[in-house]
């Protein structure tokens, strides 16, 4: 840290000023002149927080995707189907028992089991054959999509958030000042804040598990050099199954999150597969931090774009992807 | 070598009967409906409407059996053209019934000009320009367009509800513009004011930031989105604690949205809207149609959606024209085109006839969303206007002065009295 400051004094100042300006923009009430140019502060804050929560959702989907790719070099194009299946299962469970939190456990377990079956029955047989794996995963995603269409139809399903998380909550952040000087605080959907906090905790736990535990060490070693790890006596197939199950389970849980603040419907699988592809391309294949950074960037771009540049919001994410591919093809944090 | 020979023979064996079938005693229809994306559910209900109409004719015209092939789309124009081309060239259908979504319709209007000897009968797509600007002579639309669907809603909310200041959120493509225009022209003429307009790309998914950007001091917000977009929007609107009055664009309060699982749709109760049908209309024809739909599709929606009705009417128009020519299509289908232009019919939702652009003149309903005894939401009948034409009752000069629908057209201030 101090080394960076000594080596790049000018960059340090610029970054410090930018961070300070950002903190000021979030915390302080905006002067009327600025509101006239940029729009109400409430809009900015909402777009910012929505972008971060959307990023949290993308992170949940993409982190499993990127782990699986990093370790097994397997581009699992059925990942979106796992997301959608998790959403449907979560809906069914929440509807039957009324337990939103319980649905997460059930979805995680069932989709993780499906992941184990996929890895054990299908992918184990075609290790190292990239093209074959890609085609097979596309095939599986089509079959799963049709099976789900058969079971759940093309209705939209909305997973109800529990009562203690329904409606908005007030955050201790100033959203604006009314004409009579009264301060308005930011109101934000409670369920989104819960999901954001949960994603951060989950991300931190994943980081700890990867960097502080023995199994995490094995996974990191596997990402770096799979063959050497296998040669040193580790039963790498078990690690594969474990990672695949965990990644699939995460996608399943993300399905519930998506179903709670958007909806579960046929076709969402492709949307989220595309989103996670973009996220890992931007963040760097196989890197958890990269997935978090990519998800945050894409979420923010979508939400800020939808407010400040609605015409271009659709291309914005792909523009980011194109820029990353042009200047840093391995992804922002890829190696 | 031997394998190659066998496979060639096998391929020929498969292809041969298909080629023979195309000419004999069958009429082949290509049906287009979205099977993925935002409008999947509307697409499925559209297919139900189509099947219902076929059933009315027992699947044949003058002893000729009617076959049909589905061209699945995702509501994007390029996919629509690809599927239409496949239906015409590969499946060799006689004519196409489709598509569902506004911009698909525009793309197929242009494609229709490249196949003058074939016919496209629009199923549910509602962009204005499809039949108003540079129309194709072999493209027919047996239902009013999106602007016609909005007719009468604006003055209704101003006069009956007293909502004069609104913000609008609508889908950022041809149908969104057209449907909004129908509402806005009438609304502004009645003295309403549009404070701010938001446009959302089709299939956005996350609307929370737009919801936060809505102005505080409006009487109501107009929502012109549909399919899963509508459901996602309502869901997030509820989570953000929104409680402003809502004015519904036509596809916002359709059965495909009102039957979604979850409580977000409850925000729609009391929402005025307009379109080509009212779910509980007491008319005899309508009730008979609803009953036939319910009997044919026990797994379908509680009552047919707007999309089912439009697909049904479009198919009925096509089949009635086929009946008029005894199912004998000329090589260039000129007799079929003439017969289609001459079709006049009493549909379940009012009388339909075509204008010189082969665009329907029909009835428009004003409705409000209410909750039934069983907790199901539906649109209740409020008012009905007959013979609404594409120029919304204006002369061509007056109508053209407003301009073609876009993000900024119509200009509300210019229309205020």
Can you offer a commentary on this structure?
The complex is a heterodimer of chains A (335) and B (417). The radius of gyration of chain A is 21 Å and the shape is globular. Chain A is mainly alpha-helical and 335 residues long. Chain A is built from 14 helices and two strands. Chain A starts with a helix and ends in an 8-residue tail after the last helix. Chain A has a two-stranded antiparallel ribbon with strand order 1-2. Chain A has a single domain (51-327), classed as ABC transporter involved in vitamin B12 uptake, BtuC, CATH 1.10.3470. With 417 residues, chain B is an alpha/beta fold. Chain B has two domains: 2-145 and 284-363, Response regulator (Rossmann fold, 3-Layer(aba) Sandwich); 148-281 and 364-415, 3-Layer(aba) Sandwich (Rossmann fold), CATH 3.40.50.2300. Chain B has helices spanning 2-23, 40-56, 77-89, 102-114, 129-132, 146-149, 153-161, 174-189, 208-213, 227-239, 255-258, 284-296, 306-324, 334-342, 396-402, 412-415, and strands at residues 26-34, 60-61, 64-73, 95-97, 119-122, 139-141, 165-171, 193-200, 220-224, 245-248, 272-275, 344-347, 350-354, 360-371, 377-388. In chain B, the strands form three sheets. In chain B, strands 2-3-1-4-5-6 form a six-stranded mixed β-sheet, sandwiched between helices. In chain B, β13 and β14 (360-371) form a beta hairpin. Chain B is globular and about 65 Å long. The chains are: A mainly alpha (335), B alpha/beta (417).
CATH architecture of chain A: Orthogonal Bundle
**Element string of chain A (H = helix, E = strand):** HHHHHHHEEHHHHHHH
Number of domains of chain B: 2
> What is the name of the CATH topology of the largest domain in chain B?
Rossmann fold
Count of strand segments of chain B: 15
Q: Can you give the helix content of chain B as a percent range?
A: 40-55%
Helix percentage of chain A: over 70%
Task: List its traits.
heterodimer, A: 335 residues, mainly alpha, ABC transporter involved in vitamin B12 uptake, BtuC, two-stranded antiparallel ribbon, 14 helices, 2 strands, 74% helix, 5% strand, B: 417 residues, alpha/beta, Rossmann fold, 2 domains, 6-stranded mixed sheet, 5-stranded antiparallel sheet, 15 strands, globular, signal (chain B), ABC transporter substrate-binding protein (chain B), Leu-bd (chain B), transport (chain B), BCAA_transport (chain B)
């Amino acid at each position: 840290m101090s080394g960076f400051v000594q080596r790049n004094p000018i960059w340090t100042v610029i970054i410090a000023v930018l961070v300070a300006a950002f903190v000021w923009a979030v915390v302080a009430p905006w002067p009327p002149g600025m509101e006239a140019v940029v729009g109400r502060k409430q809009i900015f804050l909402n777009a910012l927080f929505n972008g971060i929560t959307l990023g949290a959702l993308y992170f949940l989907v993409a982190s499993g995707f990127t782990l699986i790719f990093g370790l097994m070099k397997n581009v699992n194009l059925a990942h979106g189907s796992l997301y959608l299946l998790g959403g449907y299962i979560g809906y069914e469970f929440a509807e039957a028992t009324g337990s939103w939190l319980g649905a997460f456990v059930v979805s995680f377990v069932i989709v993780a089991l499906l992941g184990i079956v996929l890895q054990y029955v299908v992918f184990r047989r075609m290790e190292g054959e990239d093209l074959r794996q890609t085609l097979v995963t596309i095939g599986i995603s089509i079959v799963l999509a049709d099976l789900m269409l058969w079971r759940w139809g093309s209705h939209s399903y909305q997973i109800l958030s529990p009562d203690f998380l329904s409606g908005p909550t007030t955050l201790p952040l100033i959203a604006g000042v009314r004409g009579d000087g009264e301060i308005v605080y930011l109101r934000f959907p409670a369920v989104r804040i819960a999901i954001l906090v949960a994603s951060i905790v989950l991300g931190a736990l994943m980081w700890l598990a990867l960097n502080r535990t023995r199994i995490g060490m094995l996974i990191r070693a596997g990402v770096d050099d799979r063959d050497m790890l296998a040669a040193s006596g580790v039963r790498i197939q078990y690690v594969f199954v474990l990672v695949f199950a965990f990644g699939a389970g995460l996608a399943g849980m993300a399905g519930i999150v998506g179903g709670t603040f958007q909806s579960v419907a046929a076709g969402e699988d492709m949307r989220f597969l595309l989103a996670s592809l973009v996220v890992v391309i931007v963040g760097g294949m196989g890197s958890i931090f990269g997935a978090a950074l990519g998800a945050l960037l894409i979420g923010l771009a979508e939400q800020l774009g939808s407010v400040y540049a609605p015409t271009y919001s659709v291309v914005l994410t792909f523009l980011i992807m194109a820029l990353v591919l042009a200047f840093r093809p391995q992804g922002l944090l890829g190696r | 070598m031997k394998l190659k020979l066998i496979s060639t023979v096998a391929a020929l064996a498969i292809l041969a009967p298909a080629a023979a079938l195309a000419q004999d005693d069958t009429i082949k229809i290509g049906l287009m409906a979205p099977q993925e994306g935002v409008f999947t559910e509307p697409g499925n209900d559209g297919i139900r409407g189509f099947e219902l109409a076929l059933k009315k004719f027992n699947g044949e015209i003058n002893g000729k059996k009617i076959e049909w092939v589905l061209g699945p789309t995702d509501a994007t124009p390029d996919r629509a053209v690809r599927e239409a081309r496949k239906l015409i060239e590969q499946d060799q259908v006689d004519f196409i019934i489709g598509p569902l979504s506004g911009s698909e319709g525009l793309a197929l209007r242009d494609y229709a000009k490249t196949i003058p000897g074939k016919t496209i009968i629009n199923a549910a797509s509602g962009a204005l320009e499809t039949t108003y600007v540079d129309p194709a002579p072999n493209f027919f639309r047996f239902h009013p367009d999106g602007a016609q669907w909005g007719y009468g809603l604006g003055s209704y909310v101003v006069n009956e509800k007293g909502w004069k200041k609104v913000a609008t959120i609508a889908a950022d493509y041809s149908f969104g513009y057209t449907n909004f225009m129908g509402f806005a022209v009438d609304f502004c003429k009645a003295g309403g004011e549009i404070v701010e307009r938001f446009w959302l790309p089709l299939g956005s998914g996350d609307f929370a930031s737009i919801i936060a950007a809505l102005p505080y001091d409006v009487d109501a917000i107009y929502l012109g989105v549909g399919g899963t977009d509508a459901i996602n929007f309502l869901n997030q609107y509820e989570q953000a604690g929104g409680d402003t009055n809502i004015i519904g664009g036509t596809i916002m309060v359709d059965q495909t949205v009102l039957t979604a699982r979850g409580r977000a749709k409850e925000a729609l109760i009391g929402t005025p809207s307009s379109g080509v049908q009212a779910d509980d209309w007491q008319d005899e024809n309508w009730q008979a149609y609803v009953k036939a739909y319910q009997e044919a599709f026990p797994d379908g929606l509680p009552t047919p959606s707007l999309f089912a009705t439009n697909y049904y009417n479009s198919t009925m128009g096509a089949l009635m024209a086929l009946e008029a020519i005894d199912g004998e299509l000329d090589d260039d289908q000129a007799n079929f085109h003439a017969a289609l232009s001459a079709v006049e019919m009493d549909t379940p939702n009012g009388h339909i006839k075509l204008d010189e652009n082969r665009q329907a003149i029909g009835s428009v309903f004003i409705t409000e969303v209410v909750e039934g005894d069983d907790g199901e939401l539906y649109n209740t009948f409020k008012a009905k206007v007959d013979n609404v034409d594409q120029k919304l009752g204006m002369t061509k000069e007056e109508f053209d002065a407003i301009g073609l629908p876009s993000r900024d057209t119509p200009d509300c201030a210019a229309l205020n009295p």
